[in-house]
Amino acid sequence: MNVSRRDLFRLGAAGSGALVLSMTLPGCASRQGREPSHEGGWAPNAWLELDPEGNVIFTLARVEMGQGTYTGITTLVAEELDIPPERIEVRFAPVGSDYTNPQYQLQVTGGSTSLRTSWQPIRAGAARVRHVLVKAAAAVWQVKSEQITTRDGAAHHPDGNQRLPYGDLVSLASRQSLPDEVELKHEDDFRYIGRHNRRLDARAKVTGEAVFGIDVEREGLVYAVVSRPPMQGAWFESVEDAEARKMPGVIDVFTIDRGVAVVAETYWQARKAQEKLDIRWDETDAVTKDHQAVFTQYRRAADDSSGDTERSEGDAMGRLEATDDRFEAEYEAPFLAHATMEPQNATAEVTDIGMQVWAPTQGPDMARIAAARVSRFSPDEITVHTTFLGGGFGRRLTQEYVEEVAAIADRVERPVKLIWSREEDIRHDMYRPAMLHRFRAALDGSRIQAWDHQITGPLIFDWFARNAAAAQYPWAPKFLYNTLASMGRMTEDTFLTPKDHSAIEGAVEYPYDVPDIMVRHTHADAGIPVSYWRSVGHSHNGFAVETFMDELAHQAGEDPVAFRLKHLADMPRHRRVLELAAEKADWSGPLPEGRARGVALHRSFGTYVAQVVEASIENQRIRVHRVVCATDCGQMVNPDVVRMQMEGGIIFGLTAALYGWIDWEDGRLQQSNFHDYTLMRQDETPEIDVILVDSDEGPQGVGEPGTPPAIPALGNALFALTGDRQRRTPFSAGTANA
Amino acid sequence: MSRSLRVNGTDHEIHSDGETPLLWVLRDELGLKGSKFGCGIGQCGACTVHIDGRAMRSCITPVQEVSAPVTTIEGLATEAGLHPVQEAWIDHNVPQCGYCQSGQVMSAVALLEEEPNPDDERIRRFMSGNLCRCGTYPRIHAAIRAVADGGDA
Questions:
Q1: Which in A282, A456, A557, B78 has the greatest CB count within 10 A?
Q2: CATH number of A169's domain
Q3: A172, A205, A238: which is the final residue of a domain?
Q4: Per-residue pLDDT tens for B83-139?
Q5: CB-CB contact of A658 with A731 (8 Å)
Q6: Which of B82, B96, B125 sits opposite A66 (nearest CB)?
Q7: pLDDT value of position A735
Q8: ∠ CA A539-A541-A543, rounded to 5°
């Protein structure tokens, strides 16, 4: 495969809430020459640095939050450089245009894009470096480059005896110019891609050595906590802080835009002092809607406006009006919290040249804007260091914790670490939006003739634009940040700002062969902050579409697998995973008494996933016994990492299906910690079998696609078990839920 | 007033207030950051350490109540190498984000010391106090199973 650095880099799939869908590969990332981080080092491009001691340092631009970028993208480097992945030292990237995610024009890790957007540029970057190392060896040995082979971090002489480690070639190679064109390895020659299966970060994570944001240490570090408004839309009015100031270790108490900050010598002292604050909040404009009121608003909106047409084929509306044999159903998906195991936190320090920020963030460039917004510093005076992330799932795409810590550090002038409590983390999340789904369909025998899907709820971009818009224009003056955000919102779905797919993704791609299809979105926003949550729109659209498909199969008197296959004549990759999952799960085979199976099929982030869930109800509790998952994600770099992501994605989906629930009473969020925002535990975990399809297609996303089908597959199993249709999550083990 | 605390075989003079949870003393006074803060109410197990060999939630244990020796994730490996549970965790690719894994490993070690060959049900129950949002549970189970069956915990 030949890759030119001027090649257009295109992506196979539309992104989730993508800001920009496709663009040229950032040319400067492969430009020769960059300041090495240490003496004698050679930094041929933005990603790689080699030195005479034989060290190979790789700068990883996509953060590691569990999904495996640390291993996966390093494996790409290892392959083209012919060096074992374990020999490469990985560093997390600073903010820089070379590290922008080409799918979003932001330095974002999300949308299951990391591996697929790195697949070509990272390999090409490493291959260019290998090319000049070989040229250097050829010059030393006075042989032709083509006669030299590379492996284990060394060039090998054609005589089979002599070898030159890369370190010995650095000085000579650094004087060569990198080639414009470079040949990438043929897959038959892969040593590591498709084979390397050991996580490179595992050791650091079982010894406690991995540094997460919460672990950052600075000389003279002090700690901050923030009291925030108890209701969305409430504002700070006044504070009585005399008692708090008298508490041991307290350094200062002051207000910032987002609340009242307490700074103390230790975290625990800051917490104890925070309890002594007496704060009055102005609740005049506070949001007081609960789940039910939000859905009342959505239903009214859905009644009043048929919404924007997102996909239209044939004449679904006409056919549905004309038939008496119309089948309808309505689904609800609630707000959900992310609940990363590492609560939100960040550290900041003012120095004589600006501000340094350490943050476990999925968007360091947006973190820089967030810090600039609230401090005296401009983005070019702010350095953002990313750490390992204790879970992401989309939570760390927005930067509230960075805004808070930067405002605090700007004032206290000592290095300060802000830590959110679990209660604050649940109550001040940016939630997975609650969504309402209405379906109408017409059947002709066992074939669907017309399909109408109306989705009602907010757009995530309206909330995300706050720091994202300015991050694309880091030279813009701060007084324009809010204007840029407003412009971003107003120009959504124009040439200026790409379309926000967050509400409709997973619904517009409806894969089944139906003559008349209508998919529409009715915008309704309850004023509750929302954001990206693992699999985003697919999380609710997958649930609704695949449950309604099951309803139609039942209505038609058809087997759910056979019914889907009948509507997938021209969709071979969908068929393949569905057939594989059904076969491996023994779909039509006998089951123990009291158990039933359900199936779901959903493509997201380019990856096809079918799941069969086996469940029962014991003592009024839903039990999931087994999940069989067939996945086609194209070419795989680390197959066991794919497997891990499917397992984790399934458990994430089942957690939402069984427990996920966020609700308010008088505007106050009722959930607070893991006793009332329940996550699946070890003793509830089903047996999970993952089947990976061999594929020559390009690599696709794996961090998110395991989640969407798990929810409807379980709901469909419960229907098979009880005859009660599960039309809202979390599912009910009782008798009447429909 | 200071008090004495034995952690990973070393005695320390502790200056934090006696009501301070052990977790914050370990992390912020002694600089042992391997034990993690997850919930603060003993619900998630990210802060699990051994006190006198038993798995305890350090986020709800006031330091003044700790009189026995404490072992944290940093004290698990010996000069001979990693603990067999840590090795099994690496072999089974258990960690994803890794944030909960110090606590998971400490719980697993405590289980296997108490009961070197637990059955599957016992593993499931014992490990249910440790949450993992990434969903590494199947691999945690498999890794413990492997150590138990290998009989070298």
A1: A456
A2: 3.30.365.10
A3: A205
A4: 999 999 999 999 999 999 999 999 999 999 999 999 999 999 999 999 999 999 999
A5: yes
A6: B96
A7: 53
A8: 70
Amino acid at A725: R
Q: Tokens in use for B128?
A: 């249910």
Q: What does the mean pLDDT of chain A come to?
A: 93
- Specify the pLDDT at position B2: 81
Residues A67 and A124 grouped into a single domain: yes
State the nearest Cα–Cα gap between B65 and chain A, in angstroms. 17
Domain limits at A168? 2-205
Burial letters for A481-506: b for 16+ Cβ neighbours within 10 Å, e otherwise?
A: beebbeebbeebeeeebbbbbbbbbb
The model's pLDDT over B38-50, given as tens digits with 9 standing for 90+, comes to 999 999 999 999 9
Residues A599 and A650 in one domain: yes
How many structural domains does chain A have? 3
> Tell me: the pLDDT tens digits for A240-257?
999 999 999 999 999 999
Contact A206 B97 (CB under 8 A): no
Least CB-CB distance to B96: which of A267, A644, A673?
A644
Q: Are residues A276 and A144 located together in one domain of the fold?
A: no
B36 and A679 in contact by Cβ < 8 A? no
pLDDT at A16 over 90: no
| Residue numbers in A near B141 (CB within 8 A) | 682, 685
C-alpha A478/C-alpha A484 separation (Å) is 10
Domains along chain B?
Answer: 3-75 (3.10.20.30), 84-150 (1.10.150.120)
Please answer yes or no on whether A682 and B130 come within 8 Å at the CB atom: yes
- Cis omega before residue A730 (within 30°)? yes
Contact of A306 with A499, CB cutoff 8 Å: no
B contact test, residue of A86, A200, A206 with most B CBs within 10 A:
A206
Residue A497: helix, strand or coil by DSSP? strand
- A651/A466: higher pLDDT: A651
